[in-house]
Design goal:
Blueprint lengths: L6 E4 L3 H12 L6 E4 L15 H4 L4 H4 L4 H6 L2 E4 L4 E5 L4 E4 L4 E3 L2 E4 L3 E3 L12 E2 L4 H10 L5 E5 L3 H12 L3 E6 L11 H13 L3 E4 L3 E5 L6 E4 L4 E3 L2 E4 L3 E3 L2 H5 L8 E2 L11 E3 L4 E5 L2 E3 L4 H16 L10 E6 L2 E7 L7 E5 L5 E7 L2 E8 L2 H13 L5 H5 L9
Parallel strand pairs: 1-2, 1-7, 2-3, 7-19, 9-16, 10-11, 10-16, 11-12, 18-20
Antiparallel strand pairs: 4-5, 5-6, 8-17, 13-14, 14-15, 20-21, 22-23, 23-26, 24-25, 25-26
Helix pairs in contact: 1-9
């Protein structure tokens, strides 16, 4: 591709910000246009459920890069400009105000939106989700010490929000429809430790209990659980995952299934259009997956930058994730099936590490308050070397010796 052909990026998250910097560092000198639907520069999303919700992080620290960064890289930034359509034949995108922006390569980095709970009446007050900066600000402004909150969903974001709300003095009840929290992603011992952490701090977590009814009319007042109990509350927070923002791609005729389907270079079914970050569904370990993480945003941004600039594709690395709840830090590397058998390495107090072995090799690890174990685990996953389970469970043997 000629470096003179313009690159247009739709979206203002971590993946878009990473792509901008990586394009320039790879030597791309053409025009870059970053179109953000929100009226703010790309910002970090992990703090939204933690320090930003708690009011411990100023808004200027939330930005991934300051305005001067985009100016220095000669990037045209269009804020508060939702895209309404992609015209593949004309190689342009249309904005809501009718503006047309031409592209040589188009990158879709639209992320996703919080999944709603169908039982919630439209326009009911006292109901919150957490996906954007505005969501976090609205939730923080609407709660108070002693506020009774019911939080539906026991995933990572839900548990992080529950922890933050408890730290703000709220009474929090978490309802998880599955038989345990983090059922598809966390090792059972890890999940048990996290539940114990919430319980110690006064949080209530009920598993195997869904929602049958939302009460309150115009203003939320109570939840009726699947087993018939009514839980009166002041606020409702829905944390049941996200829906990928793939509508633009679908309307443009691109292949979509649980997001926008891409190849190893993050190209869509149209080779001049890429998709990155949370909205992209790509092959990982033989499965087509959407990964919602900072690491995935960075990796896919780097992959597309290399492809556009004509550089070598970066080497694939195992995905990694983290979650902070109260003073507990969970760090994870690699992917494991929901029914994985975990090798448990016990530690002192709340320190715990779990390993998933595939064909005798460490394929994934989850480390709770064990940063040293996590650093070694990343190297073990990358090395692909055969390991005996007994070596991992023997706390007398230092992991780094492996």
């Amino acid at each position: 591709m000629s470096s003179a052909q313009p690159v247009v990026i739709i979206g203002g998250g971590q993946a878009a910000a990473q792509l901008v910097g990586s394009l320039r560092s790879q030597g791309y000198t053409g025009r870059i246009t970053l179109i953000c639907g929100e009226n703010t520069l790309p910002y970090h999303r992990p703090p939204l459920s933690k320090k930003y919700l708690l009011g411990q992080l100023p808004v200027e620290k939330l930005l991934i890069r300051k305005p001067e960064y985009y100016q220095r890289l000669d990037v045209r930034v269009m804020l508060g400009c939702p895209v309404s359509a992609i015209d593949r034949a004309a190689r342009s995108v249309a904005l809501d105000d009718g503006t047309q922006v031409d592209y040589g390569r188009l990158v879709i980095a639209t992320g996703g939106r919080a999944r709603g709970l169908s039982l919630v009446p439209e326009h009911m007050t006292g109901v919150h989700h957490l996906r954007s900066k505005a969501d976090a600000e609205a939730l923080r402004a609407d709660v108070f010490p002693g506020c009774r909150v019911v939080l539906v969903g026991g995933g990572y974001v839900g548990l992080e929000v529950a922890a933050s709300l408890r730290m703000l003095g709220c009474e929090v009840t978490v309802l998880e429809a599955q038989d345990r929290v983090l059922g598809r992603s966390a090792a059972p011992p890890i999940a048990e430790h996290l539940v114990a952490c919430h319980t110690r701090t006064g949080g209530r977590i009920h598993c195997g209990r869904g929602v049958r009814e939302i009460r309150g009319g115009a203003a939320f007042s109570a939840v009726v659980t699947s087993d018939g109990e009514e839980i009166a509350a002041d606020r409702l927070v829905v944390g049941i995952g996200m829906t990928p923002n793939s509508e633009l791609a679908e309307a443009a005729g691109l292949a979509c299934e649980n997001g926008i389907v891409v190849d190893e270079n993050c190209r869509t079914s149209d080779p001049d259009i890429h998709a990155i970050g949370d909205v992209a569904c790509r092959s990982i370990g033989g499965d087509c997956l959407r990964l919602e993480s900072v690491d995935n945003a960075i990796q896919t941004g780097n992959i597309v930058a290399a492809d556009i600039a004509g550089a070598d594709r970066p080497a694939a690395t195992a995905p990694w994730f983290w979650s902070d709840q109260y003073d507990t830090k969970l760090q994870m590397v690699g992917l494991a099936p929901a029914n994985a058998q975990w090798v448990v390495r016990p530690g002192d107090g709340d320190r715990l590490s779990c390993f998933y072995l595939r064909d005798g090799r460490v394929a994934a690890a989850q480390c709770l308050n064990a940063g040293g174990d996590f650093m070694v685990a990343k190297r073990l996953v990358a090395a692909g070397r055969s390991i005996c389970p007994e070596q991992l469970t023997d706390s007398a043997m230092a992991l780094r010796d492996l």
